[in-house]
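Minutes, methods subgroup
Present: GH (chair), OT, SY

1. OT presented the first of two proteins processed in the latest run. Sequence and structure tokens recorded below as shown on screen.
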Amino acid sequence: MHTDEVTIDAMRHAAQVLRSVTSSVHDEARALRALRDATDAALSERLAEIEDSGAYRNEDATSAVTWARRELRLDAGETRARIAAARTMADLPRARAAFVKGEFSLEHAKLLTFSMKHVGVDETVEMEEHLTTVARAFPAGRLRKIVVRAKAIRHPDTLDEAWIKGMNRRDIRLAKTIDGWHVTGFLPIDVGARMNAVLEALSVPREAGDTRTASQRRCDGLDELLERVLAEGLPTDGTVAPQVHVVVDAGTLKDALAPDPGAVFTAGPPAELVGFGPIGRELVKHLTTGAALTPILVERIGRNERILDVGRAHRHATAKQRRAIWFRQEGTCARAGCENSVDHSHHTIHWSDGGPTDLDLLEGLCAACHRHEHASEPRAG
């Protein structure tokens, strides 16, 4: 089906949903989102056509970018990104079909463009089906993680280059204004990860009806942190260990700390700095200084039921189970669409119903989702 026909179908569907007296507000929101994504795809293809054909000259413009700025009020970066996305889709037919139908957003398309450029054309074409499936089902952040991971595996030498480059740019400034302070600067990878870990932990909504925005919660979290530091005194001896998590294969860790071609463990995929992404060997060495190392037996080595499954012997998850759950879910709440960090270990078969405290029957939930889970349980009549 031609792009025009797909776009018109999306418009008709949205109109039908909006006119129907049986449509819920949720149906209307879904239809409008699909229409927006479909029209984004159509507009991107039109801009690429205007650029490639030189049609912008027909209206006295020097390029498609200048024409779009004047006629569509798009800035130059947005126009170039749309044109690049349309050109990317020409090489990814499955992704293009989903894009023009409004099944994923322009942000997803931009990430596919990034993959073509930084991971590789052949590699992205090979991953097309998987990337398209993820784009259809998840927000752009999930697709970004996959693409960044693929880039790290394909080009591992660039990881430490990025860290060193960031170290050279490090800077932070506070400028006093009439109504507060203006913060500017740039944080290196490891420093930013520490800041992000602290702010995320302090800014999670703790109760229903919290109307603060995410930025307001982060600011309140930073305020709480500063109050604690000032109340307990400033650290002066450098003995406070940063609460930052690095997930790394035993072989990759051995290769970073003590390279040995004859070692039993061979280097695996790059290490993952939680909250940032893949990192190189030199940054791994830097972060292990003074850090606590926690081994976790993952499934590809084999389950260790004697350690991780405790049946009915304990109601609450053990420390090792909590670490395994955190590792399995990458520190994120198990509920679809929730990006909060894991706060509680939840029995999928309730303890009161005889559910054992076994790893396969536990999931990590944030405080809000855990509270909602128990609030929605049927009460005995």
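2. SY then presented the second protein from the same run.
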Amino acid sequence: MSRQDKTRATVDIFGQQYSIVGSESTSHIRLVASIVDEKMREISTKNPSLDINKLAVLTAVNAVHEYIKLKEDYERLEQKLYGKEE
């Protein structure tokens, strides 16, 4: 990927500004950041005593958990659609 293919966006996550560089569109980067911000705020509301580092790790754990569940659902649906191929 060349330097021209990269997109840079400044986003706000949990009151902190981050400059994120990636290959996706600015709108995609902003969407991802807003979902992370929303999840951090949700967890912080339920656990107000968490420091920022623990909050970030817990948010990452939740995100990966959701990803794994969606991946499992996708694979299950794929097996139903295409039959059990091994």
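Chair's summary of item 2: Helices lie at 26-46, 52-82.
Next meeting: continue with the remaining queue.
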